[in-house]
Every structure is written in C-alpha cells, then in structure tokens.
Amino acid sequence: MSQLCGLPSVSPGVSPTRIESALIPSPRFDELKTTGKLPSPAGVALAVIDLCRQDNVSVDSISRAVCADPALSGRIIKFANSAANGARRPIVSVPDAIRMVGISTVRQLVLGFSLLGQYRTGACKVFDYQRFWSRSLGMAISATALARRIRSAPPDEIFTCGLLAGIGRLAIATLYPEAWDKLLSTYAGVTSDEFLLREREQFSTDHNELGAALLEDWHLPKLFVSAVFHHETVDESILAEGSREALLASILRLAAELADLYVARDEDRPGLLPDVVLAAAKLGVDEAALSALTDETVKAWKDWGKLLEVKTQDVPAFDQMMQAAVEPAKPLPTIPIQATGIDPLTILAVDDDRSTLLVLEHLLKGLGHTVLTAQDGKSALAKAVSSRPQIIISDWIMPGMDGMALCKALRQTEEGRHMYFIVLSALEQDDQLVEAFESGVDDYLTKPFTPKVLAARLRAGLRVIHLQEEAQRDNENMRRFAAELAVANRRLQQAALTDSLTGLPNRRYGMERLEQEWAASQRGQRPLACMIIDLDLFKQVNDNHGHDIGDMLLRQVANVLRKEIRAEDVICRMGGEEFLVISTDTGLVPAVHLAERLRLAAAKAPLRAGSSTFHVTISVGVAQREPSMQRIDELLKVADNALYAAKAAGRNRVVAHRESTPKATAVPIER
After folding, report:
1. 245, 492, 498, 651: which has the fewest Cβ within 10 Å?
2. Are strands 528-535 and 618-624 parallel, antiparallel or unpaired?
C-alpha cells in the first residue's frame, strides 16, 4: 500500500490465525457507523442506490434519477461503452447504458463514483488522498482487464470491486485522521504485518477488516467482499486453492501491484516489477500478455482519469520498464572478517558446458560457499537479479547472451554494479583481456584452473566486497539517521501545535487554521462559523478542589467535546477553560444546533476526579463570517461577545451573534 497516499505497502505474510478472524465484529462496526464519519454516498448517488435496491424498479425511474447529475450520467455512459467492448453502435443515452450494464452494476458504479467525488481531500495530513484515488482507479481498470482475460467474473462488476478495494484505508483516515497521521509517521517503513498489528492495537480493527465490512454493508456480493478482504494476503489466506474467491483475490492482488506501478515514481518502478511478474505468473499471464495488458490499461487509466478528474501520470511502456527491472535493494549479508581462509560467499556459476559447471560447483562448495548455477547468460541474469550473489563466475563464450553481454547487462543495474564478476576463458590474449575489463569484468580466470588459483581469486574478490559493504553500511546509517531526524522534526512540529494537557490542537494551531479557512471561505464564498466555549464557574473548581482536579476535569470535558463534533470541524484549546470550534461550510443555524449538542453532551456527562463526581456546564458563543467582516479578529470578537451574553443570561446556554441584532454588551460577571 503505500507507500500510497503516505501508507506501508501490504505484502504477503499475515498469519493464517489473523486472517481467520474474518470481518470486523458487527457490534464494533455498528459503533463506528454511529459516529457518522464512515465514508458513505450522498445526494443523487444515494437516491439512485436506494432506487436500485427496490424490487421491480424500472430502468426509466433509475435513468431519471441518474440524469439529475450530468457528471454521473456521462460516467455511466462512458463505462457502458467501455463494457460493450466493441459493440457496433455506441451507447449515447442513460437508459441504454443502464440496460447494457444492469441495475446491480449501476448501483455499484454510482456508489464508487459518489465516494470518489466526496473524499478527494481530508484531515489526515500524511495520507495522500489524490494518490489513493489514482491508485484505486488504476486497480479498477486493471482488474476489469484481467477479469475479461481470465473470465473469472463479469468485468463490469469487478470494476467497482477494484475501485473500492482500498476503501478501508480511506475509512480509517476519515475516522481517525490525527491518530492515523501519527501511526503513518511513526511506523513508516515497517513491514505490512507490523503495520496491520499497530492498526488493530490502535483502532481495534485494521483497514482490511473495515474495508470488507463497508462493502458488505453496502450490499456488494459476498464473493467480492471476500476477495477484497483477502487480496492483500491471498498467499496466506484460508481461501480454498482454485476456488472462485481465491481467483478473484489473486486478480485483485495483481491489479493492486499494477496500480502501484502506475502511481510510482520513475525510479521506484524497476523495484516493483518482480512482484508484478510473479503475481501475473500465478494467474498464468506470461510476460508478453502482461506487457500488452499493462500498456492497454495505462491508456484506459489516463482516459478515465480525465473523465473523473483523477490525477494520472505518464508511465513508460512495459517493455521499457522490464529492461531496468531490479529487485528492491536490501542490505547484503554481513560477512565476518577472518584472519585466514575464505569467508562463505554466495556465488553464481555460469557455463553452458555441464561438465565444467559441475567441476566449478564442486570446487566452490568444497570451499564452503553457497552456489547457484545457470547454463546460459539469460537465465544467469534472471538469477542474479532475484538472488543477488556477491560473486559471479561466468564463461565467456555461450550461446545467446555470452559472458560479456551478461556482465554489461548487470552493470546497467544498481545491484549488478556491486557484484564481483570473474570471467572464464580458454584463451588469454591481450585484446581479449582489454575487452573484458572494458566491459566491466573485475577479474579473469583461464581454463583449466586449479582450486588454489580459484581460492586466490576469491580472496581478492572478498576484499572488494568488504569495502563495498562498509560503504553500504555507512550509507544505511546516514539514511536511518535522516529518517529518525525527519520523524523527530514531525513530532516537534506536532508538539508545538498541540495542547499538552488535553491533547487537542492549541491556540497557535487554531489561529493558523482559522486564517486558512477564512481565506478559503472568502475565495469560494462559502459559509464559515466558529464558536467559543467556556466552562461555567470553573474558577470555583480550582479554588475549592485544587488545580490537579481542575486539570482532570478539563481533559474529560475536552474528550466529550472532541467526540461530539463532526468530522469536518476543528476544536482546539485557547487557554484556561476556553475552547474554540471552527465549522467550515456551515451557516449560523447548523452551527447553533451543533453548539447545543455540545452543551447538552457536556451537561449530561458525569465527570470523575478522585472519588468525587462533578457536573460541569458550558456556555457557548456562536458567530458566522459576515460580509462586513474583514479579519478573523472581528469574527472572534462577536463570538466572544455572544459568549459574554450567554454568561450574563445565566450560563449553560448557547447565544448566537446576528449582524442585524445589537451586539451583546460585555459585563463583568463570574465566568
């Protein structure tokens, strides 16, 4: 996954016992649904989905609902023409499109397109929302093409399955933006198994479980729900081998690998290709077919990206990427330095003469080395890329790719540049030696060779390997230090914007965020409201019970307010017992409703400190940005005036400022 959208890529390795836990328990999912923050369709999409669920609903009824949204109409027609796959007459009307793909598929498509339109941004700073949807679209296109080729499921149905396969990550980013931000930052670079474990520790679920639970709740076929749940860990899943669920999960797995390839940076793609090729091979898709399919889906991905306003990028042809394919870099095994003898090495021996290869293998194993063998240059190149031996001993003259061509190909790769290359030949002429060293060969061994000479050549190679490993360890230490420093800087930045007592954003963050939302409100002519909250008679608590008790109550009140605000709202502590809530795209009336909800929640919540129970009430002043206001200070001032009016009116109430009414007079009262 990554490291999509600011997340560790998920690879096989999750234990079967974890996978057997299946979907998230229903009570836990119901609890998450009650927050109202889970991704869900809205507007025209919701109306269409409700219609599609009705028995005996007509195509015309659904068509009228779809046509209420011109953008949605165009996307449905585009999909229908794509699904038609070469039909004689292009589809130009919504009713024809619905008849073409079917009501069930229309419902799923509308669901996917609606979520894509609603959740293009969010509060989770590290999570890359644009990259998430770009990858999801790539996965949908690739899964559709694979389903059409392998004939495992209707391609028009699996499109939505691919589009929503990663919805669990979006759900966690929406539910817990700050906590997931911290998790992504703290555990960047860990294995997928560990990250899933951290998610479960933090949220009592992980993105796989939550995503599958959402799809089930949206009434997607259980076959697709199961495939989505297992696709990231299909090799370790409990799905029966050869079953339809396992096949669909494998298709989604390959689609995910292809989508990662599409959204990756140019320098990262070569390292992703081995996983793509391996996943394709498990589905019986050879390299030629994979190349054609990839180039086709990249074009479709970019076309759909323009239609859905999803960011895409140029991707090289598959054959070009394969030429630079290298397995992701990993540290070479540490070789102990000994005073005498030869340290154990991993050596690749290459020779088309089987007898020479057997002798070479026997001698090297006799010296205590791990030996890999190949009988031609092409297979040797594949083994070198996948196994990364420290030394390669290769014959010069071989059919197809000879020793010099093999050496040149390896020297063009990052890992191959560090492999110690010894060439074998029965000839020893000056011109040949010059050609060999100019091609990148490190040493030269003449046939026939003796064990003593071979061991001496290997010792020379070992010295070079040690120097390379020392340099690599230094580079790894520098990268680790840089990563730790970056994490430390992020933590310091977060600490500077966080109130240490309540864990809420502090005044500095609140003022900066209000400035941003103010500017956005002015540009887009969108409503903006804020409220200032103050705990009633809180000074008496500190005076009568001490500041320790007061601090405990402040933390509990902060938790109550944090749970009650909406996902799009921002709450911060301004200082003392005063809090600020910023409500974007919110007018005065809904802001007052929200403030009243906060007031009731605070009044009803029993707060405990030590052995005592307290009931603390709040007063709230609410204001919205008016056309006459030029600065945020004016908005805060009128909200503060409204707060004073609430205090003066008896506390434990909400007062809203309206521009048409006289401003509340600030009177000296006990807050």
Report:
1. 492
2. antiparallel
> How far from 331 is each of 273, 343, 415, 470, 472, CA to CA, in Å?
19, 17, 10, 11, 8
Q: Name every residue whose Cβ is closer than 8 Å to that of residue 152 and which is 6 or more positions away in sequence.
A: 146, 244, 247, 248, 251
Contacts (Cβ under 8 Å, ≥6 apart) of 445: 393, 422, 423, 424, 453, 454, 457
| Measured distance between the N- and C-terminal CA atoms of the chain, rounded to whole angstroms | 51
Tokens linked to 121: 């941004």
State the span(s) of the chain assigned CATH 1.10.3210.10.
Answer: 16-39+140-323
Confidence band (pLDDT; 50, 70, 90) for 156? Answer: low
pLDDT confidence of residue 87:
52
80 neighbors 134 (Cβ within 8 angstroms): no
Give the lowest-confidence range in 81-85, 228-232, 475-479. 81-85
Three-state SS at 413: coil
What residue type is 144 in one-letter code?
A: T
Give 476-507 pLDDT, tens digit per residue: 777 777 777 777 777 777 777 888 899 899 99
Structural fold of domain 346-464: Rossmann fold (3.40.50)
665 exposure class (CB count in 10 Å sphere: 0-12, 13-18, 19+): exposed
Q: Report the predicted TM-score, pTM, of the whole model to 2 decimal places.
A: 0.48
Contact 465, 390 (CB under 8 A): yes
At a CB cut-off of 8 Å and minimum separation 6, what does 267 contact? none
Residue extent(s) of CATH 3.40.50.2300 domains in the chain = 346-464
Burial letters for 592-616: b for 16+ Cβ neighbours within 10 Å, e otherwise? bebbeebbebbeebebebeeeebeb
Token pair of 369 as six digits? 């080395």
Supply the CATH classification number for the domain 507-656. 3.30.70.270
Quickly tell me which residue has 């539910």 as its tokens. 175
User: Domain 16-39+140-323 maps to which CATH number in 1.10.10.10, 1.10.4160.10, 1.10.3210.10, 2.30.42.10?
Assistant: 1.10.3210.10
Q: Is 113 within 8 Å of 45 (Cβ atoms)?
A: yes
User: Rounded to 5 degrees, what are φ and ψ at 232?
Assistant: -75, -20
